[in-house]
Amino acid sequence: MASCRPALGGEAVRLTLDRIGHAFLGRAVFEDLSLCLAEGEVVALVGPSGCGKTTVLQIASGLIDPLRGRVQRHYRRQAIVFQEPRLLPWMTARDNIAYGLAVAGVPLGRRRESAERRAAEVGLHRRDLDKYPAELSGGMRQRAAVARALAIDPEMIYFDEPFTAVDVGLRRVLQDLVIGASAREKFSALFVTHDLSEAVRLAHRIVVLSGRQEGLVAERVLDGAPGSRDDGAVFETVQDWAKDPAFADLFDGGREAA
Ligand SMILES: Nc1ncnc2c1ncn2[C@@H]1O[C@H](COP(=O)(O)OP(=O)(O)OP(=O)(O)O)[C@@H](O)[C@H]1O
After folding, report:
1. Less CB within 10 Å around the terminal CB: N or C of the chain?
2. Which one is predicted more confidently, 229 or 1?
3. What is the overall mean pLDDT for the chain?
4. What is the pTM assigned to this prediction?
C-alpha cells in the first residue's frame, strides 16, 4: 500500500519514504513501504509489538539507513522524542532543554529565554529548571524532553512511543501538549504508538503497519482537527476499527489499550 496522501490538502510534502525495506540479521522487518507526510500533518504509525514501527521511525529520521528504497527529507530541523527522556544527567533541566540551541551556537541569553518559554509551555515550573534530571519526577523529565524538542523550532518531530511509560492521567496531559504545540507551531510529526486511542486523539491520519512483514496495511484519515475529538468520539472510532479486519493485528493478543 502506498501512503502518500497528505490529509490536510495543498501543503508541501515534508517527508517521503519511497518503497523502503529493511531486515535485521537477514530477517525481513518490512518491504516496499511508502509514506509521505505533509507540512503540519501529524501521522500516527500503529501496529503490533515488533512489527517495525521504531525501525520505520529510525529510517525516516536518518538514525539508520534502509536496506532498500529512498528517503527524502524536505525540512531543515528535526527533533526526536523517545520513550525514555534521555536527558543528560550532569545538566540542569534548563540546560537540557537548551542543549540543541547550545549546539547550534545560540548565545546564552537567548537560549535561556527560549528554554524558559518552552518549559512554561509544557507545564514545568521555573523553580524546577535548576534541578538535575535525578531530582525530577518521571513526568517532569518527559515534559523536559518535549520542551527540548520544541526548543529548536523543528519542522519535523519524531515521537517513538513517548508516553507509554507515564501514568494514564499524565499521558493525557502530555498528549494535549503535543496537540496544542502542533496546532500552534505547524510542525509535522510521525508519532509511533501501539495505543490506538492515543493515535485517534492526536493525529490527522493513522497508518497501520502489518505484523506479517506486509508493510502498511491500512490508512485512515480522521475527521476534524486533533484535539477536537472528545472521549466519546475517540472510543467510538476505536470500537468501529476493532471490527475492521485491517486493524485485526492490533487487537489480537489484547495489547490494545483502549
Ligand atoms: N538492532 C537490531 N538488531 C536485530 N534485530 C532488531 C534490531 N532492532 C529491531 N530488531 C527487530 O526488528 C523487529 C522490529 O523491531 P521494532 O523495534 O522496529 O518494532 P516495534 O514495532 O517498534 O516494536 P514495539 O512496539 O515492541 O516497540 C523486531 O523483531 C526486533 O526484534
Report:
1. C
2. 229
3. 90
4. 0.93
Ligand 1 centroid to 122 CA: how many Å?
Answer: 30
Atom nearest to 57 CA in ligand 1: 18
Bridge partners (DSSP) of residue 162 are none
Q: Verify whether ligand 1 is closer than 6 Å to residue 103 (CB atom).
A: no
C-alpha cell at 45: 504509525
Identify the residue whose C-alpha is closest to ligand 1 atom 17: 54
Nearest CA to ligand 1 atom 14: 52
From ligand 1's centre to the CA of 54, what distance in Å? 7
- Containing 10, the helix (H) or strand (E) segment is none
Residue 159: C-alpha distances to residues 80, 149, 212 (Å): 6, 10, 23
**Residues facing residue 79 across a β-bridge:** 157
Cβ–ligand 1 contact at 53 (below 6 Å):
yes
How many residues in total does the chain contain?
258
Task: State the fold for domain 2-251.
Answer: Rossmann fold (3.40.50)
Provide the ipTM: 0.97
CA torsion through residues 144, 176, 48, 25, sign:
negative
Q: pLDDT at residue 244 above 90?
A: no
Residue 49 Cα to ligand 1 midpoint, Å, equals 8
Task: Give the residue extent of every domain in the chain.
Answer: 2-251
185 in Cβ contact with 72 (< 8 Å): no
pLDDT digits (tens, 9 = 90+) for 49-107: 899 999 999 999 999 999 999 999 999 999 999 999 999 999 999 999 999 999 999 99
Written as nine digits, the cell of 119 is 518549559
Q: How many CB atoms lie within 10 A of CB 25?
A: 4
